[in-house]
Amino acid sequence: MKKILLLLFIALTPLSSLAQQESCCKASSQENPVLKSIMTRTSIRKYEPRAISPDTIETLLRAGMAAPTAINKQPWHFVAVTNREKLEKMGGRAAGAPLAILVCGDMNIARKGHGFDYWVQDCSAATENILLAAHAMGLGAVWTGGYPGNRYKLYQELLSLPEHIVPLNAIAIGYPAENPEPKNKWDTQKITFIKSAD
Ligand SMILES: Cc1cc2nc3c(=O)[nH]c(=O)nc-3n(C[C@H](O)[C@H](O)[C@H](O)COP(=O)(O)O)c2cc1C
Predict the structure, then answer these.
(1) Portion of the chain with pLDDT greater than 70, in percent
(2) Which residue of 127, 143, 179 sits with most ligand 1 atoms within 8 Å of its CB, as the best mutation to test the pocket?
(3) What is the pLDDT of residue 13?
(4) What is the pLDDT of residues 92-141, one digit of tens each?
(5) Angle at 148 between CA 38 and CA 128, to 5 degrees
(6) Are the C-beta atoms of residues 164 and 106 closer than 8 Å to each other?
């Protein structure tokens, strides 16, 4: 019965209320710098060769470590690569970037106590923080895959990382040499509201 009611609700909910919300949030996201940064971030895959200052790199790393993390375990480790030869050997988007930050799970920390499986979520939250911080500072960045798959092993070997440091991804970062439009992913079909009865 509950399922039937839920399906009826989904079918009958007028889209006008969602449309209203869209216009509300579009406007506010232009005024609020955090929302503006979230709404206008998009993956940047081409970069100017210009180097990124150590201060800026530290700000990106601080943004990563400010992420939420299950039971405050912080099972992450960040590897910041500016060495041109290593970046080129990493391949993919890193090859054309002045900086790659690998967001890694530290298995020695992840395995301690409860909540081993949360390391991917914790590192993903840190990754999104870095992407948003990069965009907010006028940089462009893209998340590129590491773990699972085989790329993380290549990174471990190339950068002489110990086995317990597992690169979840490599974020290629640089001053943008392209200006793509952010993708509009807003889709009311992907939302279910469970409201109290009016
Ligand atoms: C887990 C994950 C892996 C990704 N791997 C790659 C990748 O290997 N190469 C790449 O160019 N982009 C990669 N991306 C970026 C996505 O392609 C991109 O986020 C998606 O197309 C949406 O575009 P947007 O970031 O501009 O909103 C990855 C994103 C995620 C979340």
Answers:
(1) 85
(2) 143
(3) 43
(4) 999 999 999 999 999 999 999 999 999 999 999 999 999 999 999 999 99
(5) 15
(6) yes
State residue 26's pLDDT score: 65
- Residue 143 CA, ligand 1 centroid: distance in Å: 5
Beta carbons of 105 and 168 less than 8 angstroms apart: yes
Distance 43 CA to ligand 1 centre (A): 7
CA-proximal residue: ligand 1, atom 20 (nearest):
43
Task: For residue 63, give the nearest of 120, 136, 118, 121 by alpha carbon.
Answer: 136
Q: Give the homologous superfamily in CATH for domain 54-174.
A: NADH Oxidase (3.40.109.10)
Q: Where are the domains of the chain?
A: 2-40, 54-174
- The Cα–Cα gap between 127 and 72 comes to 16
The predicted pLDDT at position 30 comes to 77
Q: Is the pTM of this model over 0.90?
A: no
